[in-house]
Write a structure and sequence with these properties.
The complex is a heterodimer of chains A (about 475) and B (about 350).
Chain A lengths: L17 H24 L10 H22 L8 H4 L11 H30 L4 H9 L8 H34 L11 H29 L5 H30 L6 H12 L4 H19 L3 H5 L1 H28 L20 H21 L3 H4 L8 H9 L3 H13 L27 H20 L1
Chain B lengths: L1 H8 L1 H19 L4 H9 L4 H12 L21 H4 L8 E2 L16 E6 L8 H10 L8 E13 L5 E3 L2 E15 L7 H4 L6 E4 L4 E3 L9 H5 L6 E3 L4 E3 L5 H4 L6 H5 L5 E5 L6 H8 L2 E2 L11 E4 L11 E4 L12 H4 L14
Parallel strand pairs in B: 2-12
Antiparallel strand pairs in B: 1-6, 2-10, 3-5, 3-13, 4-5, 6-7, 8-9, 11-12
Helix pairs in contact in B: 2-3
The chains are: A mainly alpha (about 475), B alpha+beta (about 350).
Chain lengths: ~475, ~350
């Protein structure tokens, strides 16, 4: 006789609702997009340098929106200041939140200052009358020097902040995994895999989000998409998805097999993920759409160069990672602690802890991102005029010597179906039109070319 | 009533106590009405009498104060509103719980023994608790799972005849009183990010409702589901062992209301208390011992099968068993209850 109250609407509720499902998702996007930025800033993947500023402001916008989820989930949001005044460290991992968050915000401010200082200085010089120019002149904090020495110093600051920041990003996101993984009361949460699982899936989702945003922004402004960047991001995506798949399989084996798992863990894993309410979100969304389909679809280099395929797969990965957060947060609470039935986990449409609030948090993150896109000079590297726009193409290819020209050629060759040509031996590595990478060019050459670059770009930005 | 029994056991002290009470009562009788006298008799002794009592206590070992906790003013558990959160008068800990009993003086250690042989599943304790502590509708500080375990066994000679054959009844009803375990190493207290919940030196785990930010971490961390969100005050809430009663020498409401004496409350530090005798003479178990929380609610003759999903066939009182009950929306008045006229709440 099966239990009569299998999907019982019990009094033991899932107290951590959709907002807490969203919280690790957003903080994972923060950490993941930060990792994408550090790939060029710290780990020398110079091909990804053009999108590093975009990834950085994306990470910062999400970082500012991330606390809204837990703040909205707290029943007494007016007492949140106690997290600073009555901090229970080091015993409560949650008490570390504000410390880590504030440290991360400060670090991101330093990094964003260094990333955009040269661009701001240019803009302040060329648009001194406009609002943007005034904001830019404030944001340079008085350092208007755009010589190669100052750019090199900026690059050094960025490298240091990226190095510390990647640790902070892992801490910021890993501690959430630790909160779940250290909870011995919950059979499905209590696994030491949890922090690693969270961090890896965070990097996966961050790469996918940066990919999607890069494609969307380029499409919106009508710029040519650098397929080498797309392919490189997809390659990183495949690698991290493989790592994620490995961890998921380990989790599945150590929790879902009777011989390897504790009784309680196995029973609940079996009931929820194999036969219960989470079967579709686990096998369908988390493993299928989030891992297996992107792995297959991004298997070949040709498919990794396809823009439509990349966009769809990035979206799939984002859905899959959200499903993973759902499976962890909701699944852990569906497993009852004291009774033997599945706890109901209602999704509320409006009001407290509902779909409405989750959409609101994402909307705030989007607004912040759009605001930073308006304010920050992030276009320098990403902006590649499309072929149809005629004159501006010529300006860009002549304005930035070497780097942009190569990229231009590659893009054209890929669109025509011709195999990609390697970078010209005399030129720099592709995509080095980011501000601090210009330091590698000759100092005199750079200074002589600087005004013309800025001039054309700012004019195009206005129009 | 273990506390009153202890008081009776000390004849010398009892004499002194009665003299004190008589003195207070006599002095009050001069003041006037019967009501005033009744109130003043149970009130604290006067300053001079308290000095005599303290002088008496100073001649005794410190641990002797379990005898009449009501009268030991130096403990700090007298004045609830003023001293309960004052760690100087009543030590409270938020972490590193091994200090209790070692570096922190520990005159009492309140524990509960639940004798399941005697529990009849009448739910009187549940009602008394809600009555005493004003627990909102839909949530419980203590509850009793009453479940039916076993099944109808096919039997050719069985007494129960159905269309599908004859059966023998092999079903028994088992009840399981549940309450906060006031663990000696409570994970719920340790994870609180703002130190809003604490463990008193006498073992009671409590929440400061004015500090709770309502994050829900303690609710998730409790392995016994003893914590919940109070829907009225919007903070975490839990059993307090009726600390406001215990501090005045009374038993918790669920203990006083139990008709079969299945719940026994007392001081584990006192070797003469009923709980100490029960724990020392009867095999007891605690819930989820493997988690290392060291629960301080001890069960006699606990039915392991209550937790076994293959054994439980029917839940008799589903509204307290936290499953298959009316949705909270109905109970809290957001949806009409049966017989509700539909008026405004």
């Amino acid at each position: 006789m099966p239990p009569t109250n299998y999907y019982g609407t019990g009094l033991e509720q899932g107290y951590w609702g959709l907002m807490i499902v969203t919280y690790p998702y957003i903080s994972g996007l923060v950490a993941g997009s930060f990792v994408v930025a550090t790939l060029s800033q710290l780990f020398g993947r110079k091909r990804l340098a053009p999108i590093a500023p975009l990834a950085a402001i994306l990470s910062f916008a999400l970082l500012l929106a991330a606390p809204l989820t837990i703040w909205g989930d707290a029943r007494q949001p007016s007492r949140v200041y106690e997290l600073l005044t009555r901090m229970h460290v080091p015993y409560s991992p949650m008490a570390l939140f504000l410390l880590i968050w504030i440290a991360y915000v400060i670090l991101m401010l330093v990094e964003l200052y260094a990333v955009f200082r040269a661009g701001n200085a240019e803009r302040a010089a060329w648009q001194s009358r406009s609002l943007k120019g005034k904001i830019s002149s404030v944001l340079t904090l008085g350092v208007r020097d755009t010589s190669a020495t100052s750019l090199r110093r900026d690059e050094r600051i960025v490298r240091w902040t990226a190095g510390i920041g990647i640790l902070l990003a892992f801490l910021f996101h890993g501690y959430i995994g630790f909160i779940f993984g250290s909870m011995k009361a919950r059979a499905l949460w209590s696994t030491p895999l949890m922090p690693v699982l969270f961090i890896v899936s965070a990097i996966v989702s961050g790469i996918a989000l940066v990919q999607l945003v890069y494609l969307a922004v380029s499409k919106w402004y009508g710029w040519t998409i650098d397929r080498e960047i797309v392919a490189e991001l997809n390659a990183w995506l495949v690698g991290t998805i493989l790592l994620d798949l490995y961890l998921d399989v380990v989790d599945l084996v150590t929790s879902g097999v009777r011989g390897y798992a504790p009784e309680e863990t196995f029973e609940w894993f079996n009931r929820l993920y194999f036969h219960g309410p989470l079967i579709w979100t686990y096998f369908g969304l988390q493993l299928g759409i989030g891992i297996i389909i992107p792995l297959i679809a991004l298997m070949t280099r040709r498919s990794r160069l396809s823009i439509v395929n990349s966009a769809i797969m990035a979206f799939f990965v984002l859905v899959g990672v959200y499903a993973m957060r759902w499976n962890v947060v909701a699944g852990g609470q569906m497993a009852s602690k004291v009774t033997n039935d599945v706890v109901s986990y209602p999704i509320v449409g409006t009001g407290y802890d509902s779909v409405q609030t989750v959409v609101g948090v994402f909307a705030i993150a989007l607004l912040l991102f759009l605001f930073f896109m308006w304010g920050a000079p992030w276009r320098t590297g990403v902006e590649q005029p499309s072929e149809g726009s005629g004159g501006s193409s010529g300006i860009a290819s002549t304005a930035v010597p070497g780097a942009s020209t190569v990229t231009e050629q590659e893009v054209q060759s890929t669109t025509q179906g011709i195999p990609l040509t390697p970078p010209l031996p005399g030129s720099n590595s592709p995509g080095t039109s980011n501000s601090f990478n210009r330091a590698s060019n000759g100092e005199k050459e750079l200074q002589s070319l600087y005004p013309s670059v800025t001039n054309t770009q700012t004019q195009r930005g206005r129009s | 009533m273990p506390i009153s029994k202890q008081a009776v056991s000390r004849r010398s002290f009892l004499g002194m106590l009665s003299a004190t009470a008589a003195a207070v009562g006599g002095s009050v009788s001069l003041l006037g009405s019967k009501t005033a006298r009744a109130i003043r008799v149970v009130a604290r002794p006067s300053a001079a009498q308290m000095q005599r009592l303290l002088a008496y206590y100073k001649t005794k070992p410190r641990w002797a104060s379990w005898l009449v906790p009501e009268l030991n003013v130096n403990d700090g558990w007298q004045r609830w509103m003023r001293t309960i959160l004052n760690s100087k008068s009543l030590p409270i800990v938020h972490d590193n719980f091994s200090r209790i009993g070692t570096t922190i003086r520990q005159p009492h250690h309140w524990v509960m023994v639940i004798d399941e042989r005697r529990c009849v599943g009448c739910q009187a304790c549940v009602v008394a608790c809600k009555d005493e502590n004003n627990v909102p509708v839909g949530v419980y500080r203590t509850w009793v799972d009453v479940v039916e375990i076993g099944q109808m066994v096919p039997d050719p000679t069985g007494a129960i005849v159905t269309d599908h054959g004859r059966f023998t009844n092999n079903i028994k009803r088992s009840s399981m009183p549940l309450i906060c375990n006031h663990c000696d190493h409570p994970p719920c207290v340790e994870v609180c990010p703002v130190k809003a919940t604490f463990k008193r030196a006498d073992g009671i785990v409590m929440i400061d409702y004015d500090l709770c930010i309502g994050c829900g971490y303690c609710i998730q961390a409790c392995p016994y589901n003893a914590r919940f969100f109070n829907p009225v005050q919007q903070t975490a809430d839990k059993c307090t062992f009726c600390a406001h009663r215990v501090d005045r020498g009374l038993l918790p409401a669920c203990v006083t209301s139990c008709p079969t004496h299945a719940r026994v409350f007392g001081d584990k530090n006192d070797p003469t208390s009923e709980v100490s005798k029960l724990i020392s003479t009867t095999p007891t178990t605690v819930l989820k011992e493997d988690l290392g929380t060291h629960p301080q609610v001890f069960y006699i003759n606990r039915e392991q099968e209550v937790y076994d999903k293959n054994s439980v066939k029917n839940t008799v009182y589903p509204y307290t068993a936290n499953l298959n009950s009316t949705e909270y929306a109905t109970l809290s008045g957001n949806a009409p209850l049966p017989g509700d006229t539909g008026g405004q709440r």
